[in-house]
Every structure is written in structure tokens, then in C-alpha cells.
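Sample intake sheet
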Amino acid sequence: VYTTAGSAEKCAACEKLGAIKAVNYKTDDFLTELADTPTGKGMDVILDMVGGDYVQKDLKLAAEDGRIVFIAFQAGFNTEVNFVPVLMKRLTITASTLRAQSGKQKANIAAEIEEQVYPLIAAGKFAPLIDKVFSFDDISAAHARMEGGDHIGKILVSF
């Protein structure tokens, strides 16, 4: 697993969690930093939440027969794309969002998570990374922490 994060601290946290390499996207070009992976073949799966000018970089980083999955477009929906790498590498590009799912589809997803993920959590094989828990009375502090972008992991609010 290779990843990007927005600070040296967040990159260190990703590597502590098992990432082979984490690139600070605010100071380094992830395309340059990840172009020479140990296998030299590129990334088999790319999960992109940014879109925008990342799309062309994704196409360059993807391995032959690789997949690129978009789950958000934080940098915008519109961008110019050279589709030659898609053809030459036989890439598969998909996208998904929960918002567009029906209530039944969301229920099915929740059931799959309960069946497949919860047992891993219960067995201690997987744990969510929690930055801080705020009481509901401190909701404004929780929101300020999230807006500041310095958190590493989830911000929880207890009721």
C-alpha cells in the first residue's frame, strides 16, 4: 500500500499503520515519488478522492490492467484527460458514492460491513484510528479540529 497525506505527521502515521510509503502531497509530487515502486510496474489499484489534475497522474501511475476508483472529486469534476494510457494499459475506471445509492443498497452495504468487517474489529485484527472523542457539548471544538485539518484519524462525538 502506497498513500498520500497532507503533513509529515500524517505520512508517519500512515507508515506506522503499514503503508510502504506515504507521500506528503503538499510538499512533494506524488507522481514523481511513486513512479519508481519496487515492482516497477505501477499501481494495481488507485483509490482517488481528489480528481481534478490528479486524474492524469493516476493514469500514468496505474499498472497494466490496473483499476482506478473515484469516490470523490475534491479538486473538481472537470479536467482534460489523455485517454491513450487507458487503452494502452487496458485500465478499468470506476466510480461510486453512497449518496446515489438507494436505501436498500445502503442497507445491503451495512449488512456486508457487519458480516465482513465487524468480526475483524472484534478479533482485534483491525481497529479504526480515532483522533479524539468530544462530548456533544463540545461540538464546536470538534468542528474546529476537523476544519483545522490537523487530526489523524476519526473525530468522534459522544452523546
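Comment: The chain is about 35% helix and 25% strand. The chain has a mean pLDDT of 93.
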